[in-house]
Amino acid sequence: MNIDTVMNHLNTFNNYGYDEETGGINRIAFRHAERLAALKFSMLCQEAGLEVHFDYFGNVIARRKGKDNTLPPVMLGSHIDTVKDGGRYDGLLGVVGALQVIQHLNEHQIATDHPIEIVAFTCEESARFNKSTLGSKYITGNLSAEDMKKLTDDRGKTLFHLVDTLKQSMPSENDFYHKGDLKAYLELHIEQGPILQNKHKDIGIVTHIAAPHRYKLKLTGETSHSGSTPMPMRKDALTAASEIALQVESIAQSHHQEGIVATVGYVQPFPNMMNAIPGEVKMLIDVRGKEAESREQVASEIEQAIKTITERRNIEADLEDLGADTPVSLNPQIANITEEVCEELDYSYRFMFSGAGHDAMNMALICPASMIFIPCKDGVSHSPKESVEVSEIEKGIQTLIGTTIELAKKDVTV
Ligand SMILES: [Zn+2]
């Protein structure tokens, strides 16, 4: 592989949407910089001799022929969009990495049995429409025109309006991938967490992708004067909220071994004044786990704790269930192939689950899917501070190359 080409590509793409003041990358889905990056990717694919097209949604998909083009392709890729003031590697690494796999195969004139497709998904981040992984939802048939009409950005534009105006190709049945259409999907990504760095591992082989169950909670007590209301006569919604937040933490703590995390990330007290007892609090609770069963166990413990705390404190609780996604298991055979590749290359690795969502979780619904993680500095992502060592990128892409070559063999079944 050629690490200089990879670093050049990363730099080129990160010129699109670079903010000089913050140092962040702003390739927000369907805005100018992000579409330019998609176009640039399509040109690089063309240069590499691939058949490339945009689908109606604006995903870029390129194909390298196999020895037997009736076999289902192995698909590699990730997303090209970022959050506001995002980092230089989230998503982009997997896109540039996929392109490097093709360039490696071309350079060494390696013909694979299965065709290989590489993809740059758009709109993976929820930054614009409060919903994530939309490009991969689209190609797997889980995002209809009706769904797109219901999603609006903060300027009131619907996703459907944007997609249909851009019309990067005509809507087509051919855009969709069904079960059996792909041999496998493989995504290289930065970890976006601190585990690989802390454990001094080069590569993370992802076995599960955790999914959230979310709640909105409104607590109603009684707003009154902070000076003239004696302690025993108060109905303080904020102290109740505080106790709930601590309880959420401690319940999640006790299930930490099962891969559970839970967060109260948003609290809004009312009237939020120095001299008033807060009579109302709105809060958002996010519970995640890699297995639905243990996560739901925790969710019900949290529901129970809310009930107990608010009853004791005589506070009214209105708990709204915002819905739960299903955690996804990735393919163990591909994980084993990646493990062997790491062994051969003498890279250290660990099996792990992903706390964050990725396009791979949609792809896993239609084909065997897997993910390869590399460490990122202090686990920081979605920030201009996102940082990765060149040697880590190199190891990540080498692992991607090795796994792809194996997967694209006719006699390797997953
Ligand atoms: Zn990402």
Write up this protein.
- The chain is α/β, with parallel strands linked by helices and 414 residues long.
- It folds into two domains: 3-209 and 327-407, Zn peptidases (Aminopeptidase, 3-Layer(aba) Sandwich); 211-324, 2-Layer Sandwich (Alpha-Beta Plaits), CATH 3.30.70.360.
- 35% of the residues lie in helices and 22% in strands.
- It is built from twelve helices and 15 strands.
- The chain has helices at 3-15, 32-47, 92-107, 134-139, 145-150, 159-166, 195-198, 237-254, 292-312, 332-345, 359-363, 390-407, and strands at 51-54, 60-64, 74-79, 116-121, 184-190, 203-209, 211-220, 224-225, 261-270, 276-277, 280-289, 316-324, 328-329, 349-354, 369-374.
- Strands 1, 2, 3, 4, 5, 6, 13, 14 and 15 form a nine-stranded mixed beta sheet that branches. The chain has a four-stranded antiparallel beta sheet with strand order 9-11-7-12, with helices on one face. A two-stranded antiparallel ribbon has the order 8-10.
- Strand 1 (51-54) and strand 2 form a beta hairpin.
- Helix 8 (237-254) packs antiparallel against helix 9 (292-312) and helix 10 (332-345) crosses helix 12.
- Residues 79, 90-91, 124, 189 line the site of zinc ion.
Q: Segments where pLDDT lies below 50 for 5+ residues?
A: none
Bound molecules: zinc ion
Query: How many strand elements?
Result: 15
Tell me the structural class: alpha/beta
Helix content: 25-40%
Distance between the termini: 25 Å
Beta-strand share of residues: 15-25%
Radius of gyration: 23 Å
CATH class of the largest domain: Alpha Beta
List SSEs in N-to-C order.
HHEEEHEHHHEHEEEHEEEHEEHEHEH
CATH homologous superfamily title of the largest domain? Zn peptidases
Question: How many domains?
Answer: 2
Number of helices: 12
Shape: elongated
**CATH architecture annotation name of the largest domain:** 3-Layer(aba) Sandwich
Largest sheet: 9 strands, mixed
What do we call the CATH topology of the largest domain?
Aminopeptidase
Domain Peptidase M20 dimerisation: 215-311
Binding site for Zn(2+) 1: 79, 90, 189
GO molecular function: hydrolase activity, acting on carbon-nitrogen (but not peptide) bonds, in linear amidines; metal ion binding
Protein name: Putative hydrolase
